[in-house]
Amino acid sequence: MNNSMTDLKNKRMQYNIIGIVAALLLIILDQWSKRLAVSALMDKEPFVIIDGVFQLRYLENRGAAFGIMQNRAIFFVIIGILILAAIAYLYHKMPCTPKYHLLRILAVLMTAGAIGNMIDRVLNNYVVDFFYFELINFPIFNVADCYVTVATALLIVAILFIYKEEDLKFIDRKHSDVSGEKDDAK
User: Are residues 143 and 116 in contact, defined by beta-carbon separation less than 8 angstroms?
Assistant: First the structure.
């Protein structure tokens, strides 16, 4: 019994380390892409990739998604911290089985996106955006936004089509023990 608890703690530690390293790498990629955008696009004409369809265009977004709620950086940082705390809690509560790899990957993507944009808000009071789909006049976005959007879309698909209600009972304290593994054995 004691050996299985040690194995579980080691496995949980391994998942946590992998998640942290993956999030850090994704954050570095996001920040690097934003630095490139600043150096290559700021105060310049947009760089057209596909004429009339897609371009790189520098924008300082002082709001949230689609530029809503302008100039509320402190509010966004506080909300970001709360969301990160919830993601960390759920990540830690997830059973350490392959069944939950997808949810862990999605949590890492959401974390990296939230932190990537939070870094911009704290350092600059705005987020650097630079991808623009001109064809549909979609709001300008960045790599961190891609992480969050893709993760959110996949999470919706996963909850609707992959995971059953009992697979998510680890979230509720009444249905899991301290290790978070109780329900997964069923």
Answer: yes
**pLDDT single digits (tens) 1-27:** 578 888 989 999 999 999 999 999 999
By the 8 A CB rule, do 129 and 59 touch?
yes
Supply φ then ψ for residue 154, to 5 degrees.
Answer: -65, -35
pTM across the whole model: 0.87
Phi/psi of residue 130, nearest 5 degrees: -155, -10
Is residue 47 within 8 Å of 136, Cβ to Cβ? no
Closest CA to 126 of 135, 118, 134: 118
Q: Which residues of 106-141 are buried (b: 16+ CB within 10 A; e: fewer)?
A: bbbbbbbbbbbbbbbbeeeebbbbbbbebeeeebbb
Q: Please list the active-site residues.
A: 129, 145
Residues forming a β-bridge with 131 = 56, 141
Phi, psi angles (nearest 5°) of residue 66? 60, 20
Residue 148 in tokens? 């969050």
Q: In the block, which residue shows the tokens 């999470």?
A: 155
The residues near 11 (Cβ < 8 Å, ≥ 6 apart) are 96
What tokens does 159 get? 């909850």
